[in-house]
Write a structure and sequence with these properties.
The protein is of the alpha/beta class. Helices cover about 40% and strands about 10% of the residues.
Length: about 475
Amino acid sequence: MAAPMLRRVSRGRWLGTPGRSGVLPLGLRKAHSGAQGLLAVQKARGLFKEFFPERGTKTELPELFDRGLAGTVPQTIYCGFDPTADSLHVGHLLALLGLFHFQRAGHNVIALVGGATARLGDPSGRTKEREALDAERVQSNALALRQGLQALAANHQQLFTNGRSWGSFTVLDNSAWYQKQHLVDFLATVGGHFRMGTLLSRLSVQSRLKSPEGMSLAEFLYQVLQAYDFYYLFQHYGCRVQLGGADQLGNIMSGYEFIHKVTGEDVFGISVPLITSTTGAKLGKSAGNAVWLNREKTSPFELYQFFVRLQDNLVERYLKLFTFLPLPEIDHIMQLHVKEPEKRGPQKRLAAEVTKLVHGREGLDSAKRCTQALYHSSIDALEVMSDQELKELFKEASFSELVLDPGTSVLDTCRKANAIPDGPRGYRMITEGGVSINHRQVTNPESVLVVGQHILKNGLSLLKIGKRNFYIIKWLQL
């Protein structure tokens, strides 16, 4: 297998996506960083945190995104997502929102799944090495992430279109090009462009080298592969900007230095802030506090409630970060909140916008139904809930399928569902008011079940024993 081709491109040429032509003169226009510039707007919202390099390049970064200037063409921006799990989580959302904002402005974006790099493990922001994943697990996770990214992009396109012409959203996997590489060829051709002193100086590397566990060679080479990803996308897709979390700045710098050394061209990096818990821990799988975007791991109701429960001192910032709402509208929402804080209007709007983006309108409707059923004891909400929604809402609940025999009583139902103990103690639990069916307390153990009261129109009964023990019963042959 031939070594990877590292070709130098002529200065001043725009490397467009195949099939798209155009030349972007470099260094010929004054940088635009006005209040209406795309980068300035997102920096004002708090979404874009740092830009690299800040200055000293032939083309200033804001120039690339001011489409009002003559000769400016759509840019390509990418962000990487390593498949260390089979789902994205809330910690990934800010980077995705960053990609979406570029797409809405008419630029082309790439979500890169690290089907190859995930096997090395990114050391950035970590105190110890990631648990090694086998190839089969990574491949399975990568497929799930690609599907998740495509679903989010589809929801964004369908539900949040603003009537303007948008750029493209492409999902790629870096295993597509690493599978074609031979190790010695790759190291001989690519490795010679990296200096050990520079790689060792990265903060992520320094902190790991000083840790008791140290750092493996696989982790150390992660930044080389991420740099090559940037180079590959630059060469094949004309990608000049990498977006990443604030902990990715060292990896982005490696990509810039590599591309600049090989091609003489400038590329750029933009970081987004890291979202942390109330204790300051980064939200994610490794920290054990991930709020997943896959419905099977975190239901729409749970995602909705995560944002509804947000503290007042964070909600304005999160509205700016996690939604597409214009800043004046956010200001108005917060003004109303000052007058009626008990309504939690900003939290509800934030939760609705995020849940709709992640799970679509149906997911948002589901989250609202579950909220009404659980916190407002709504019978109407219970009656239209699906089996899936009930299982999501009452995760710890026992689920039973029972046949409704003529004359089935409250006591019969509780015993068949194994919700109460046999004998006098179980009988007393009912008579003493410790049992409710569909949010209605029942105190007569011998009362016969009534369809429409104890059994809802969807053929379900929600049995509650005490304060927290739920049992879901699906009645057969009604």
